[in-house]
Design goal:
Elements: H1 6-21, H2 32-47, E1 51-59, E2 62-70, E3 75-85, H3 95-115, E4 121-128, H4 136-144, H5 147-152, E5 153-159, E6 170-172, H6 190-202, E7 208-210, H7 219-223, E8 228-232, H8 241-247, H9 271-288
Parallel strand pairs: 3-4, 3-5, 5-8, 6-7
Antiparallel strand pairs: 1-2, 2-4, 6-8
Bound molecules: phenylalanine, zinc ion (3 copies) and calcium ion.
């Protein structure tokens, strides 16, 4: 998989910030900064050959939008779907939450044609609307799928907050290897977790598991039995001294002290965490998109 240039990801964050600045300070559901964010992504995906569609839905009296982009190669019956929510809260521009995940998966999508990669499976990318109001866009999408369309989605990868300033390195616990929480249940994907883990091992970074607690857009997917996974660098939770010893940063402070606040700006991003997570996404998409070679 290619090493994704951090500078490209940061360019997208700068664009999200200026979209918020010129649209009342946010990119929230039903506000003009949301649709401007959709249009920014769509034009770049169209320019390199993606097939893009905008799916609209209504929530709380406003129209919301999901942006879907499919790379037109690979087995259409074996889809690897990668998603991030594109909406912010109304209180700020939402650069770490979730400009970071949105920019990271955009740059991974753009790297597919740039690198000449020919995936065996079908790559689809999604930017969800109205996550902040209760996973509205991702739930609308899952509900809109026919049974056959659902069955074609083999895996769902979710990225929500991947550049937290006081970062942790969390991987959704698909196989309950951390023994924490209720266990993976039917939702866990050991394959996804182990693939992400292999990347972090290769760069010498220790990760911790985080349970599927229903707080992001993987929820509607695991509810219908589509295996999910992904990474997360922490929100309002407090970094322990053991975690600070492992990852650096400041013990006793939130992973993101600007979570859901007006200070979630381009200054609220940890470049190292954003770079590592973006490269981890590329590695994972590349690995999962290839059918395993036959044994022997
Ligand atoms: N989904 C939460 C938000 O957007 C953030 C979050 C992601 C919290 C993953 C926990 C786990 O505000
Ligand atoms: Zn990199
Ligand atoms: Zn949020
Ligand atoms: Zn979020
Ligand atoms: Ca667990």
């Amino acid at each position: 998989a290619p090493d994704i240039p951090l500078a490209n990801v940061k360019t997208h964050l700068t664009q999200f910030q200026s979209i918020a600045n010129t649209n009342g300070g946010n990119r929230a559901h039903g506000r003009p900064g949301y649709l401007a964010s959709v249009n920014y992504l769509r034009s770049q995906l169209d320019a390199v050959g993606y097939t893009t569609t905008v799916q609209s839905f209504t929530y709380a009296g406003a129209t919301g939008y999901n942006l879907l982009a499919e790379w037109p190669a690979g087995d259409p019956d074996a889809v690897v779907l990668t998603g991030a929510h594109l909406d912010s809260v109304t209180s700020g521009p939402g650069i770490n939450d979730n400009g970071s995940g949105s920019a990271a998966i955009l740059e991974v999508a753009l790297a597919v044609p740039r690198s000449g990669f020919t995936p065996d499976k079908r790559l689809r990318f999604a930017w969800w609307g109205a996550e902040e109001l209760g996973l509205r866009g991702s739930r609308h999408y899952v509900n809109s799928l026919s049974g056959a369309e659902r069955d074609r989605i083999q895996q769902y990868l979710n990225f929500d907050m991947v550049g937290s300033p006081n970062a942790g390195y969390f991987v959704y616990d698909g196989d309950d290897s951390d023994g924490v929480g209720a266990g993976p249940g039917p939702e866990g994907s050991a394959e996804i977790e182990q693939t992400i883990q292999a990347y972090y091992t290769s760069i010498g970074v220790t990760t911790q598991g985080t349970d599927f607690d229903g707080r992001s857009d993987y929820g509607p997917f695991i509810a219908v039995g589509i295996p999910a996974g992904g990474t997360f660098t922490g929100a309002e939770g407090i970094k322990s001294s053991a975690q600070a010893a492992l990852w650096g940063g400041t013990a006793g402070q939130a992973f993101d002290s600007c979570y859901h606040r007006s200070c979630d700006t381009t200054a609220n991003v940890n470049d190292t965490a954003l770079d590592r997570n973006t490269d981890a996404i590329a590695y994972t998409v590349w690995e999962l998109a290839q059918t395993s070679p036959p044994p022997g």
